[in-house]
Amino acid sequence: MSQKFATKFNYYHHSPASTQKPTEIDIFQKLLKARGEPIQYPSVVTVGIAGEEYVKAELIEGLPSDAAYRHALARLDQHELLPWDKQADEDRNQVHRDGAHEANCQHASEGINTALKGANQITGQQKLEKKFAGLALPFLGFADFFGGNRVAELKCKTSLSADTKLGRRAGALPSKPDPKHVAQVGYYANVLECPASLVYANEKDYRIFDEINCQELTAEGMSKALDDLRARAWSRENLMRAAPDYRRRFCIIGYCRTMVAGN
User: Fold this and answer.
1) Are 47 and 96 in contact (CB under 8 A)?
2) What CATH number corresponds to the domain at position 146?
3) Can you state the angle between helices 246-262 and 23-34, rounded to 10 degrees?
4) End-to-end CA distance of the chain, in Å?
5) % helix / strand / coil in the chain, to the nearest 5?
């Protein structure tokens, strides 16, 4: 049961992803949801979601690659352009219409399949909830893929349009995983009590990080990242406790609107 201090913000649980957002943005989005207003994201987020849907269609549902890609394209078609950044958002979306996204999807699928090699069955979007000592609210998240007693998180690196004759360029694959992604998959690994892999994919290739080639994804490394995640959640709960009245809530909302407009 949610605590009273959090209920007024429509804040019923922490998320391993949203807890790492700026506090004001996360709370603002929770309040928007409570009012029934949609939360809009840039096309780069939609591209990543579409890539994940491709992998699910191919590796979980067993669809052929062409049918799986139709799922991904349908997701891109559903994207609503950002009202405050329509032209730039449209440009970012269109970059993925000439084969870049299909190649990204294929590499994402190959990466997840390799990371979970040997699994008899791969599942996706597993709901994972856990209550940690010292926190009033539980954590809730959804693991991307699981198989063979390993969880794998997918991150698609979107292609970019370049202001040169070279045209489009692929989003760079990282040399080490993003700490935010480590904390996210570390939470899933903690709940499932299993090792974890982070898979990054772009239109040219994919890269896998796990406990063998990455210190951050060892049990110790993920434990440290999870400690930081819990500390952020604790701080957020204290902020909500310090906002006791209606006027204070609207001060936070006004600040959040400014932050969102600035982004």
Assistant:
1) yes
2) 3.90.320
3) 110
4) 34
5) 50, 15, 35
Angle CA 18–88–255, to nearest 5? 40
Q: Which two tokens stand for residue 154?
A: 């997918």
Amino acid identity, residue 85? D
Half-sphere exposure of 31 (CA within 13 A, CB side): 18
159-207 pLDDT, tens digit per residue, is 775 544 455 677 789 999 999 999 999 999 999 999 999 999 999 999 9
Q: Which helix (H) or strand (E) holds 122?
A: none
Q: Enter the tokens of residue 125.
A: 């979007």
For 37-86, what is each residue's pLDDT tens digit?
A: 888 888 889 989 999 999 999 999 999 999 999 989 999 899 998 888 88
Strands 206-209 and 196-201 come out as antiparallel
Residue 234 has pLDDT above 90, yes or no: yes
What pLDDT shows up at residue 55? 97
- Helix (H) / strand (E) containing 112: helix 100-115
DSSP states of 168-183: EEPPPPPSS--HHHHH
Domain that residue 214 falls in: 4-262
Nearest to 111 by CA among 203, 183, 36: 203
Instruction: Indicate the length of the chain as a whole number.
Output: 263
Count of structural domains, the chain: 1
Contact call for residues 38 and 83 (beta carbons, < 8 A): no
